[in-house]
Write a structure and sequence with these properties.
The chain starts with a strand and ends with a helix. The protein is built from 16 helices and 13 strands. The model has no long low-confidence stretch (mean pLDDT 95). The chain has a domain of 216 residues: 3-Layer(aba) Sandwich (Rossmann fold). Strand 7, helix 6 and strand 8 form a beta-alpha-beta unit.
């Protein structure tokens, strides 16, 4: 917490103290970047002071976070992050890749990447004595907030579109949050959340609005650095990281994490960040293709509900994440997303549509020559397939139904 100096607007550059403002720039509504005291961190810590820690969660990176230790030992709040990184030999052989890693965020306590943001936001809420935390969500962010809040007895209110997958709504309810379904889309729920926070004095967690969400999401970059990049220090080709993009907050958080490491002198070559969007929800990709930072809203429609967003709230920083790292944006149809779910499943990774979107984008980037088979590649699965079994069933053939007899089994096997 001593290393947290304040905020800087990502648009106009105006700076604020750590307790002057909560959400976005008062001048232009720009997203705020958290400013850390890199000199103080460098004086106090070395790389080895981080990598030797026995706390195998995102809280091992507490010296690089703008919050104090939230407590909650022995609860899911302290178990977010430090997700497994797989390197499936069969996929590498099939695709003729030299190095491929799949980081599985479905192994987080509430089964998505959003646990990272919610745990840090809950830590901040406890610091400022917030009585209630509120967020808008298509399911994952809300489940993450509900779960992390339940772990420490923090009241939470979740606004979600009534069309959100039932499994995600079930999570919200089971965790004991006050759940309010909105007869509208995510963007309408987002706007209502901000109004409610202002009216009732609630602390708003909204993605791409609360600056602490990106700070939580940057911990994915810190883990990639510790688990892959440190061991690949002599690698000549820069790491290519593929992640799905909705509001834009995960890719901007990853970018922030790598920039923090670069500023500390702990990172050599900056990884290239590739944002992947569904063709039916591509507002950020459209801006990238137009070579500008003007985020025009779309009428989003995609099977990947977690990244179905009309107006991305962290779009500008999301564009910059690809531009400033030499990466790119890729769009894929829903058909490719469904195929990617099945392909990842064949190596034991069960991805929800948004998570499989990143893999589908990597395949397209490979076919278009945006990356080379010799390049080291990380694909981030942002959530478990159990979040949306309805979509998963569209990716595979239905299981046959037979009579419970050996004769029926033989007949089926002979087909």
């Amino acid at each position: 917490m001593d290393n947290f100096l304040g905020y800087r607007c990502s648009i106009c550059g105006k700076e604020y103290g750590p307790f002057v403002i909560d959400y976005v720039c008062t001048q232009d509504g720009g997203n705020l970047d958290v400013i850390l005291d890199y000199e103080a961190i460098r004086r106090k810590y070395r790389v080895e002071d981080i990598t030797c820690r026995q706390d195998f969660s995102l809280w091992r990176y507490l010296p690089l976070l703008p919050v104090a230790d939230p407590g909650g030992e022995g609860t899911p709040l302290r178990m977010a992050g430090w997700t497994p990184v797989y390197s499936p030999p069969s996929l590498m052989k099939k695709l003729n890749l030299r190095n491929l890693w799949v980081k599985d965020e479905g192994r987080n306590p509430t089964a998505s990447y959003k646990d990272r943001a919610s745990s840090v936001v809950v830590a901040r809420a406890r610091q400022i004595n917030a009585k209630v935390i509120v967020t808008a969500s298509t399911g994952n962010a809300g489940a993450a907030l509900a779960g992390m809040s339940a772990a420490v007895g923090q009241p939470a209110v979740i606004f979600a579109p009534r069309t959100a997958p039932p499994a995600k709504i079930a999570q919200l309810l089971i965790y004991g949050a006050q759940v309010i379904l909105v007869d509208g889309n995510y963007d309408q729920a987002f706007d209502l959340t901000i109004q409610a926070a202002e009216e009732f004095g609630w602390y708003c967690r909204n993605t791409g609005y609360n600056p602490f969400t990106a700070e939580g999401k940057k911990t994915g970059a810190l883990e990639i650095w510790e688990n892959i990049l440190i061991n690949q220090a002599d690698q000549q080709d820069s790491l290519a990281v593929f992640v799905s993009v909705g509001d834009g907050n995960i890719i901007s958080g990853l970018h922030k994490g790598f920039k923090d490491l670069k500023s500390l002198g702990w990172l050599g070559q900056m990884p290239r960040l590739f944002g992947v969007q569904s063709e039916g929800s591509a507002a950020v990709a459209n801006a990238f293709f137009a070579h500008n930072e003007v985020i025009q809203p779309v009428s989003a429609h995609t099977i990947a509900d977690s990244i179905s967003v009309d107006l991305p709230r962290d779009g500008v920083r999301a564009v910059r994440a690809a531009v400033q790292t030499g990466g790119a944006y890729i769009t894929v149809p829903d058909e490719s997303i469904l195929k990617a779910i099945a392909e990842l499943g064949q190596v034991g990774i069960f991805a929800e549509p948004a998570g499989a979107t990143a893999y589908a984008g990597m395949l397209k980037a490979l076919s278009q020559g945006l990356i080379d088979p010799e390049d080291p590649i990380v694909v981030i699965n942002t959530g478990s397939g159990l979040k949306d079994t309805r979509a998963a069933m569209q990716a595979v053939k239905e299981a046959p139904v037979i009579e419970p007899t050996l004769e029926a089994l033989k007949k089926h096997l002979a087909k």
